[in-house]
Amino acid sequence: MDIFEAIKKRRSVRDYLEKEIDDKIINIILEAAREAPSASNRQEWRFVIVRDKITKDKLCEAAKNQTFMKKASAIIACCAQTDNHVMTCGQACYPIDVAIAIDHMSLAAVELGLGTCWIGAFYEDKVKKILGIPENIRVVELLVLGFPRNKPTHPKNRLPFEKIVFFDKWGNSK
Ligand SMILES: Cc1cc2nc3c(=O)[nH]c(=O)nc-3n(C[C@H](O)[C@H](O)[C@H](O)COP(=O)(O)O)c2cc1C
């Protein structure tokens, strides 16, 4: 599959088969994260892979009971060990860098026939407690990973090109 096909195919998957996932597969996905770019190559990302059923259930509770999380093969807590560096542009590096790594993982998952869903609706303090994550580490997102039960049928809902792309000056559409 080429990269454009993977981008087109990727959807948020919220219905999973209850199946175990191989270490090998997890490693391929994490290797895709490790290859991601980051500001000044800081590589502040850290990942906690959760496959244990009881821990997944607890993470689901910390994520406002998004119950589909329980059936996923793994939940990856995508963290940052960060010095909170802010770039000249005024943006903090770590959420951007961790997000790029997550996107690499979600596209690698498509190639492997797996599904993912980003989870931003979670309580960081609860997740840290469940996973024993130290105070100074941030949990940026959770990434749910598993075997999709169905092929997605609904079309992707995206803004039209003209609404989001301008040429030479803000507001100029072609
Ligand atoms: C930063 C971020 C946080 C998200 N948090 C959640 C979440 O907590 N629960 C959920 O079901 N989906 C979550 N999503 C998935 C979005 O709802 C989804 O990407 C969007 O609706 C577009 O659909 P698609 O991924 O199928 O293309 C999140 C996505 C991103 C990028």
Descriptors:
NADH Oxidase; globular; 6 helices; 174 residues; single chain
Explain this structure to me?
- The structure is a single chain.
- The chain has helices spanning 3-9, 23-34, 53-62, 93-111, 124-131, 161-164; strands at 16-17, 45-50, 74-81, 115-119, 137-148.
- The chain has one domain (3-149, 156-164): NADH Oxidase.
- By secondary structure, it is an alpha+beta fold.
- It contains six helices and five strands.
- The site of flavin mononucleotide has 11 residues, from β4.
Topology:
Elements: H1 3-9, E1 16-17, H2 23-34, E2 45-50, H3 53-62, E3 74-81, H4 93-111, E4 115-119, H5 124-131, E5 137-148, H6 161-164
Antiparallel strand pairs: 1-5, 2-3, 3-5, 4-5
Helix pairs in contact: 1-4, 2-4, 3-5
The structure holds flavin mononucleotide.
